[in-house]
Amino acid sequence: MRQAALDRVKLIFTLLDADGTGSLEAEDFELMATRVVAASPNSGEAAKAAMLAAFRRYWTTLAAELDANRDGRITFEEYTACVLSPERFDAALTDFAEALAALGDPNGDGLIRRGLFVALMVAIGFERANIDALFDAFQPSDDDQIEVSVWAAGIKDYYSPDKAGIPGDHLVEVRG
Ligand SMILES: [Ca+2]
Ligand SMILES: [Ca+2]
């Protein structure tokens, strides 16, 4: 695996451990789903429900595939196995990426404003400077919006073990 992919996986594991226990449990995904949905108050109920469902599916998929010792929690060691066989998570990740991108587009015009993008990514736990760098890398329009499809694709790239030099790497950089 490429180092860039490993760095991305490390960061996302830390953020997914929303309650800070040091491992991933079902509660982490409930907590983060609540935070993320709360960051987009103008989104419709269907979009919010889809986001919640996507977080739950993400957890049940991870638990089914990665909880090697079946103790209801996923350690970092267990989690890193996900990057070795990304195809097993493809459906859940696609679901998650589309739900998150849709949440960022309350008026359904296919575009996401920087303000809501930042709010959602802060809710997940990323740093503001990294979020702005990522948004810029997605090449926003003159009125500072990006396409929903670009973001959804970017989320999937983030989890791809063979990708390096992608916009998502901006999330990992330590920025001052
Ligand atoms: Ca946890
Ligand atoms: Ca386990």
Automatic annotation (TrEMBL):
InterPro entries: EF-hand-dom_pair (IPR011992), EF_Hand_1_Ca_BS (IPR018247), EF_hand_dom (IPR002048). This is EF-hand domain-containing protein. It comes from the Bacteria. Residues 4-39 form the EF-hand domain. PROSITE patterns: EF_HAND_1, EF_HAND_2. It comes from Microtetraspora malaysiensis.
